[in-house]
Amino acid sequence: MTSPSLPTRSQAVAEALAAAGIAGEIVVLPDSARTAAEAATALGCEVGAIANSLVFLCDGAPLLVMTSGAHRVDTAYLAARLGSGEIVRANAGRVREATGQAIGGVAPTGHPAPLRTVVDTALQQHEVLWAAAGHPHTVVPMSYEELLRVTAGTASPVTR
After folding, report:
1. Do 130 and 45 contact (CB within 8 A), yes or no?
2. Counting Cβ atoms within 10 Å, is residue 54 exposed (0-12), middle (13-18) or buried (19+)?
3. Rounded Cα distance, 112 and 57, in Å
4. Distance, C-alpha 134 to centroid of its chain
5. Full-model pTM
6. pLDDT band at 4 (very low <50, low <70, confident <90, very high)
7. Which of 68, 6, 15 lies closest to 40 in space, CA to CA?
8. Potential cystine with 11: which of 2, 73, 91, 115 (Cβ 3.0-4.6 Å)?
9. Which residues of 95-131 are buried (b: 16+ CB within 10 A; e: fewer)?
10. Distance of CA 96 to CAs 92, 102, 103, Å?
11. 38, 69 Cβ separation under 8 angstroms
């Protein structure tokens, strides 16, 4: 059951989380949590516990990388790990096309179609992770294992 007070995109995320058996409730923040630092401040947690949802293009297709807010993705390193061609950041239009969500609110799930996903192994050191939930003012808690399950992601370091 979704809350009617959630933004439309967050309702889709709530439905996808429920279908995956993820119990975490979406939290609506009074201020934007577009960046990991903003989200960590609003939630009172370490920035490393923020699971950033970044969309890249890899061999011409969208690639969702769920990374720790404590560091940046090393795209050359990740491409070598994946055995792929160059990985480049997707522009805002491609992000919305792939996820149905705007930059700053991209959730790990609730997209129009499944996305190839990599989940940063650095996130597993946190008991509770916080990910965007479809809107810049919504977040959802989950464990590392739940993040892997809901994204059907591949666990990998994303930086040297």
Report:
1. yes
2. buried
3. 17
4. 9
5. 0.94
6. low
7. 68
8. 2
9. beebbbbbbbbbbbbbbeeebbbbbbebbbebeebbb
10. 6, 5, 8
11. no
Q: Mapping DSSP to helix (H, G, I), strand (E, B) and coil, where does residue 135 land?
A: coil
Which tokens belong to 125? 């050191």
Would the pLDDT of 148 be above 50?
yes
Q: How far is Cα 68 from Cα 122, in angstroms, rounded to an integer?
A: 6
SS3 86: coil
HSE toward the beta carbon, residue 88, CA cutoff 13 A: 8
Highest mean pLDDT: which range of 4-18, 30-44, 63-77 = 63-77
Please report which confidence band the pLDDT of residue 105 belongs to, taking 50, 70 and 90 as the band edges: very high
Q: What is the DSSP string of 16-37?
A: HHHHTT--PPPEE-SS---SHH
Segment (H or E) for 157: none
Kindly state the tokens that stand for 77: 């390193």
